[in-house]
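Q: what sequence does this backbone want?
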């Protein structure tokens, strides 16, 4: 697959409501496997309900099991403790803290970066299932 971006709508399974989006940008491709960067956003009304964690588990499982993915990376500004908490809940490992790395709202911020390797993911999630509270729908864009 020559695409470099893969994004999906996050939909509430019970109501069909649009919650937000989640997806990957392929950072690198090699015979040893791809490195994919996870990205997401959801509507504020859905914050703090475990939805991004659930959707991340689904899409990361798909990437590791169906694509040639060897590593998933993601990150956020250090002030975004909720997003960093998601990374920790997923079992991701902090790899870096980048000083003065992101300009956001006319301020400069540090960024934390996390990763998980395919074999780490498989060990953590070999006997676990997702909660089934969201479904992912292919984004036409």
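A:
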């Amino acid at each position: 697959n020559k695409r470099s971006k893969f994004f999906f709508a996050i939909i509430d399974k019970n109501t069909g409501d649009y919650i937000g989006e989640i997806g990957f940008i392929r950072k690198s491709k090699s015979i040893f496997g791809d490195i994919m960067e996870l990205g997401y956003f959801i509507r504020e009304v859905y914050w703090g309900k475990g939805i991004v964690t659930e959707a991340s588990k689904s899409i990361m499982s798909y990437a590791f099991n169906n694509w040639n993915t060897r590593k998933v990376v993601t990150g956020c500004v250090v002030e975004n403790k909720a997003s960093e908490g998601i990374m920790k809940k997923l079992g991701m490992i902090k790899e870096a803290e980048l000083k003065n790395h992101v300009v956001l709202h006319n301020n400069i911020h540090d960024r934390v970066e996390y990763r998980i390797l395919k074999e780490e993911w498989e060990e953590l999630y070999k006997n676990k299932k997702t909660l089934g509270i969201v479904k992912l729908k292919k984004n036409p864009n």
